[in-house]
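Troubleshooting: if your tokenizer reports a length mismatch, compare your output against this known-good record of 376 residues.
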Amino acid sequence: MRKRIIKTAALILSLVMLLSMASCSNGRITDYAVAHETEFGAVIIDISIDDFCKKGFAFGDSVDLSFSNGREVTDIPFYNGYYVRPGDLLLVGYPGYETIRFSCNAGDDTWVMEDLKEGDKVSIKVNKKAKYIDVQNALNIRYSDERADYPSDEAFANYREIRVGNILSSTFYRSASPVDNRHKRAHTVDSLMAKDGIRYVINLAETEDKLKSYMDADDFDSPWFKSLYSEGDYHLAMMNMNYSSKEFAEKLADSVREITAHDGPFLIHCQEGKDRTGFVCLILEALAGATYDEIKDDYMKTYENYYKITTESDKAKYDMIVDQYLGGMIDAISGQKGADPYSVDLREGAVNYLKNAGMDSNEIKDLAWKLTIIEE
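Known-good structure output:
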């Protein structure tokens, strides 16, 4: 009798455990708090990436979101990166984020879009397992923060001179951040800045308060930037990722006006020197008469530096990145969705973008002169 009771208890315990595991892995969470992420305009959901995945979600799934204010979003991908075209929605668990986020890639603020307010909650469920797994697998790329994993300081720092079109030599450079050291690159960037005699920095990522917090940190070791900072030879833009927005365009215009007002060499950077920096450089390169292939090669150098992705190493992944990210940028300056980049007048697109951002013809000519010594 005692053995039978023990066996029965063991069976009941096993059943309870199985039911518990099933309830934790059915791809559903209910009534989780949300908060507004204001830098890029996203919805922070109060659950860590690991805990969310333990609830039965996986990168590449299609998910549905239901907010307590009655708003619903259906069939969006859950990725560990921003693997959608600009303006598309996704749920993202980006490496380094403490929680998952509901975002519009390089688009509008999803908090505002869904009319959310403090105290609102969200429930999420799987719409279809692995619906977007092919994109997740193709674009699931990460980089190392260890210098030993890179062939040069320049590759590690994503640092390079911009030499396309008619751009002057030894004048314009781009890189990762020389002040934000979360990826251990700031000192390396600073050393390269010193080598090239950078005289003015355009920082697309920081506010003054955030910049000072980096400079006050124990690991801050960027003496060249500190000397520029002490002379006021820097500009802070604090841009989001929505390069189709009026706010982004106006901040870009303010930033490039600094080029005409100061002497170079200039360094342009954000955090990684990839997206915001990539778009600003695209505008300058197009204005300087660069071809699409030149712009593409410069943009994709970042992916070679960080991820070792080239046409030789992985052409399918290379082409997908070009289509997903650079393609959206070309659309933004051409005003055409899905535009053929070889048919677009890129210089005209850059001029129109700057005009729509508030720059007049004389300002644009002055910028072109400073870039290339060639006027329109």
